Amino acid sequence: MKPLIIAECCQNHNGDKEVLKRQIHEAAENGADYVKIQAIRSKEITHRSRFDDGLVDSNGVVQVIKRPYFAEVERLKKLDLSLDDEAWFVMECWKAGVAPMTTAFSINSAREVKDMGYEAIKIASYDCASYPLLREVKKYWNKIFVSTGATYDHEIEKAASILDGTELHLLHCLTIYPTPMETLNLRRMSFLRKFSSNVGYSDHSLVETTGLWASKIALALGANSIERHFTVLEKDETKDGPVSILPHQLRELKEFSKLDRKEMMEIIVKEYPEWATCLGSPVRELSHAEKLNRDYFRGRFASLVDGKHIYNWEEVNY
Questions:
Q1: What is the dihedral of CA 210, 211, 217, 218, to 10 degrees?
Q2: Closest CA to 109 of 303, 299, 298
Q3: pLDDT digits 0-9 by tens, 287-314
Q4: For 220, which of 185, 246, 264, 294 could close a Cys bridge (C-beta 3.0–4.6 Å)?
Q5: Phi first, then psi: what are they for 313, rounded to 5°?
Q6: Does residue 51 contact residue 296 with C-beta atoms inside 8 Å?
Q7: Which of 280, 263, 278, 266 is nearest to 213 (CA)?
Q8: 97 — pLDDT class (breaks 50, 70, 90)
Q9: Torsions phi, psi for 291 (to 5 deg)
Q10: Domain 4-310: CATH class, spelled out
Q11: Closest CA to 300 of 86, 109, 40, 21
């Protein structure tokens, strides 16, 4: 079975359904197996005051990243999709002949979209250890993709245990945006294979300087799936533009994925001789940058229940 290619629309639609429609159809035309959006709800952003100003120590080292709450809410409000919009997205994917997927960032959002027809669900890296959220999505989907960036080994093991019995796809991911090639640590996929036979890679490398090489090397190392941010706009028109691929690059990635691994490696060794610098180690410590991002993004969203935010890791019945 050939690897799955996931075109992640992320925030590249800028809240415009016409742009999103173009993304769907151009992704389908250029070989995507899944087109994915994100069930982001600006009302579910939590206010944690320490991120309003951030913290830099006396040596100039960032200890808490700065991400002011009110500015983030205003930014994401413009990207909100209504439930009707999300139902339309599913139908438009089907019309285009491609499978629809979404990322659930809270238990509430998972419940809201569970009957829309999404053929798979994605859990972002920062919720790999949000066990109540994992149990919730297991009720509604069999095909579950979980990114594992900025997640500790024991958390991945427990997540896999909770999702036992599903078609679980674990995605290696580096939660550094953009991800430098020397930090890719693609050998991490061999660690993930302890918990699932379906192991892929979610790629956030800088397209302008490193093209598709990170994804291509991951494929040559046996990745069953590749997730890449996808855009039909110029790279400076969206926040995620610099780490997003264009339709012709999606087509190139799809065609590369059809090669056998020997052919893949012959191309890589010839055209990207420094490829081995991307390998790293199966087991490694999280970097300072990853820990900073984990600190902020884990808890960024939470279900809003009776005016109170309930975090995805909280064992609360509601």
A1: 110
A2: 303
A3: 999 999 999 999 999 999 988 999 999 9
A4: 264
A5: -95, -5
A6: yes
A7: 278
A8: very high
A9: -65, -40
A10: alpha beta
A11: 40
Short-list 90, 80, 83, CA closest to 41:
80
Q: Per-residue pLDDT for 140 more than 80?
A: yes
In whole angstroms, what is the distance from residue 32 CA to residue 313 CA?
A: 32
Rama region for 234: left / alpha / beta (φ>0; ψ in -120 to 50; rest): beta
Residue extents of the structural domains in the chain: 4-310
**Which residue, 101, 149, 96, is CA-closest to 127?**
149
**Element of type H or E holding 63:** strand 62-64
Please write the tens of the pLDDT for every residue from 259-283: 999 999 999 999 999 999 999 999 9
Contact, 69 vs 47, CB < 8 A? yes
Phi, psi angle pair for 11, to nearest 5°? -100, 10
Note whether 15 and 258 are within 8 A (CB).
no
Place of tokens 């913290």: 55
Instruction: Give the whole-angstrom CA distance, residue 114 versus residue 110.
Output: 6
């991120």: which residue's tokens?
51
Residues in the chain: 318
Judge whether 36 and 122 are in contact, CB under 8 Å.
yes
Instruction: State the amino acid at position 229 in one-letter form.
Output: H
How does strand 99-104 pair with strand 34-39? parallel
What is the share, in percent, of the chain residues with pLDDT greater than 90? Answer: 96
Q: Which residues are within 8 A (CB) of 58 and not within 5 positions of it... i.e. 6 or more apart?
A: none
Residue 115 and residue 97: Cα distance in Å, rounded? 19
Report how far residue 137's alpha carbon sits from residue 106's, in angstroms, rounded to the nearest whole number: 10
67 in Cβ contact with 296 (< 8 Å): yes
